[in-house]
Amino acid sequence: MKRRMFSLAALLLLVLSISVQAVQLRAAGNPNLSFNGTTANCYVNYRSASTSDKVSATLTLYQGNTYVDSWSGSGTGSVFVSGQCAVKGGKSYTLTLSYSVNGTAKPSVSVSNTCP
What we know:
This protein has 116 residues and is an alpha+beta fold. 22% of the residues lie in helices and 53% in strands. β1 (32-36) and β2 form a beta hairpin.
């Protein structure tokens, strides 16, 4: 009987940990930075854990420490922000996502890429 209860408890713990990871993956909104010639294509599709959350997001593009451009948006439950701008070939760029959920700022997320 103890062995059966232990097995059920272990299975329940496994299922709960998978559910938590799925919610974290769903809530993640990773910025995307790609290039088409000397045009930077930037976007993020952020989905909150709850469809009733008020979310806002700003994408900011940097070349080194130099500001290049930024785009913002907001929504309920999710937000899609995108933008394009001219960049220089051979330079490295960083796209940073700053966002908040229900007015609470979350840690920013960045991605870097080099324009060919």
